[in-house]
């Protein structure tokens, strides 16, 4: 194995030969003044300049056209939304996610839709055999003659398949299970992952061939392998979801060709994965006006979605009341309870408090503060929120309602869904917002069951 020759020190003492990386007035060895001189760099190898050809010559950016790289739809609208409108030729896309979340199912659907669109697709699976992929394709309806399968773990063989099939889209599942003979070590080691990814990206750029690479994640949810993997690719997408629910989200963590604030929504079904272009009804209850519920408008990327926050309070004699939170930030819920008791004059210190979202969605942004406060206050006082009211706002420790980002889009989505009143920063104080809800709402009667069809007076 060749050793790298160390670079010569630029300064040397003319008396004793002591070298240093920076000039000093006195030699560090013989302590003589003025003997340290700059060493001649003659004979040191240097990189020679090479004149680029006419095809690679630098041009003014205004003269460069993108007509030769139009976006192509993957056939899956939610995936295109995250990519910024479609797949760019020559793009290297990295898709990560926890085991079993549905990465292979999603990419098999993308491959099938691209094949139905008239493009030849090569799906190289290094984790499953061809028969296993075929079984999943039969279940999800992803069979097509233009979809080619290969079960290979050797990078050179995968490149040979690309030369023979001549696809217009390549999917490699996954980069941690493919190895190259040019690098030492087993598949999945940093050197192997770096070599495999660099080779695939070079092929993508040279042939204008889009390649989608699946990447494993660590127990912390980060992409496994060297960090350079995320720097090399053009797009980094993360596929996430709770195994207890069928809902899945795909987010762009990096995108050289589009925004990174878009979110794609999918639902896992028995027949595979299905797009959810309008997830508004997934996170709402059945329209009940029982005390302890409040609807907030959450932002998932550029998409506004209503999320129902539910709260339940129970008296307890325990010295430390329970605080059980699901789908929300537990620290923010604890802060909201303290603000509610201090600024809203609603005691919560002797109650067990349970707060949750509907549908298993995670709603951790500060815009959920006001909805949490109204839901908990309603559960304690027995005041129900009308079904035409939504709440959006961040609470400060002083009890003030602060504005949130993209407020106009949230109000527009609320109006589209039939919410005629949005309680937000215009109420200024938490106490004023609670009073407005209390005045316009009806106090629930514990002895008479409430009917869902009862009309609720609007604000």
TrEMBL record:
A motif (RadA KNRFG motif) lies at residues 254-258. GO terms for molecular function: ATP binding; ATP-dependent DNA damage sensor activity; damaged DNA binding; hydrolase activity; zinc ion binding. InterPro entries: AAA+_ATPase (IPR003593), DNA_repair_RadA (IPR004504), P-loop_NTPase (IPR027417), RecA_ATP-bd (IPR020588), Ribosomal_Su5_D2-typ_SF (IPR020568), Ribsml_uS5_D2-typ_fold_subgr (IPR014721), Rubredoxin_2 (IPR041166). PROSITE patterns: RECA_2. GO terms for biological process: recombinational repair. Residues 352-459 are annotated as: Lon-protease-like. GO terms for cellular component: cytosol. Gene3D superfamilies: 3.30.230.10, P-loop containing nucleotide triphosphate hydrolases. ATP binds at residues 97-104. Residues 68-217 form the RecA family profile domain. Keywords: ATP-binding, DNA damage, DNA repair, DNA-binding, Hydrolase, Metal-binding, Nucleotide-binding, Stress response, Zinc, Zinc-finger. Pfam families: AAA_25, ChlI, Zn_ribbon_LapB. The middle region has homology to RecA with ATPase motifs including the RadA KNRFG motif, while the C-terminus is homologous to Lon protease. DNA-dependent ATPase involved in processing of recombination intermediates, plays a role in repairing DNA breaks. Stimulates the branch migration of RecA-mediated strand transfer reactions, allowing the 3' invading strand to extend heteroduplex DNA faster. Binds ssDNA in the presence of ADP but not other nucleotides, has ATPase activity that is stimulated by ssDNA and various branched DNA structures, but inhibited by SSB. Does not have RecA's homology-searching function. PANTHER family: DNA REPAIR PROTEIN RADA, DNA REPAIR PROTEIN RADA-LIKE PROTEIN. Belongs to the RecA family. RadA subfamily. NCBIfam families: sms (TIGR00416). This is DNA repair protein RadA.
